[in-house]
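Title: Prediction job returns without error message
Component: structure pipeline
Severity: low
Priority: P3
Assignee: unassigned

Description:
Job completed but the reporter wants confirmation the result is attached to the right record. Sequence as submitted:
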Amino acid sequence: MKDSVFIYSPLFLNYKFSNKHPFNQLRVELTVDLLKKLKALEDDEIVEPRFATDEELELIHDAGYIRAVKQAGEGKLSEHEALNYGLGTEDTPIFQNMHQASSLIVGATLTAVDHVMMEKSKHALNLGGGLHHGFRGKASGFCIYNDSAVAIKYIIEKYGARVLYIDTDAHHGDGVQWSFYDEPNVCTLSIHETGRYLFPGTGTVHERGQGSGYGFAFNIPLDAFTEDESWLKVYKEAVTEVAEYFKPDVIVTQNGADAHYFDPLTHLHASINIYREIPKLAHEIAHSYCDGKWIAVGGGGYDIWRVVPRAWSLIWLEMKNLSCKAQGALPKEWLEKWQDKSPVELIPTWEDPDPLYQPIPRKKEIEEKNNHTLELALQFIRQQREYNAKKKC
């Protein structure tokens, strides 16, 4: 069994809305090249993804919606019909062969699932995935098909496993949450910027599941301008408590890199330091509860030059126990190759500039609000644990 596999294809670049759209899969290529220049990713660790079948897509998505995506990518869907499916909007414009590009993203995450669940590897990483806003019959927030939701449903049906989904994107993982809102074998935890001023506007601490899924959805919405210390306190305490409560068979982590201060679409003030800690704890949880079974996907991240390659490389380095490589200067060859193509000055080190930003005047108030939100979530977890213990008696 391999320790870790890296799911990748240059065809990920075909998932492209336009040259000016903020979602740009070049960030995956940048990350792959950084890891190779670091000599941390070998060719025999890279696995070619497959395309998801229509039957697999229908684990989550309506057949009518899949037909609409196909027709849109062939220029055969009217504007009115497209808008009914969330296609042709500013967020998710129509592009040629969008079904093929999107089904490859889903197939890549399914490839990761099979490697882990069939014990070909302990861990698997698909940075092309993490499209967590896709709904059953509608595209949303740059996401056409929801690869994480399809993968989780696939795990339940094919492998009969209990899945803990941890989403650290700055935007609420709404599409995954609602897909399993009444499912007791899936526990979703999303730590994100509050939806008061940020898409999609959901993910309050009181969204806790329904029916047999009540008590298996958790949200920690953070105040705008949250910094590292508060972010990490919430992450470490919430993930630890939820994992102990749910005791999963496998974890799926969505690793949006858009909580960073440089990200142009969000208002959080995290640094690269949180991206060192996120995979570290995920790795520990996977080995503590799941015999190492850990599937990681990408997600948001719109400063593709200064943030995403460094942040996403740290996931793979953690999987390979090579975090020590992420110190000091980035490989000179990588910087020289990409600087002329970048519209901004690349950061030449693994560490962020110091200082990264001016001090936040509301720091104490923000931390108090975040602590209150965290405590509400933790109280609910403890209440559920006590309730479940009494039921067993």
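Comment from assignee: result matches the submitted record. The chain has a mean pLDDT of 97.
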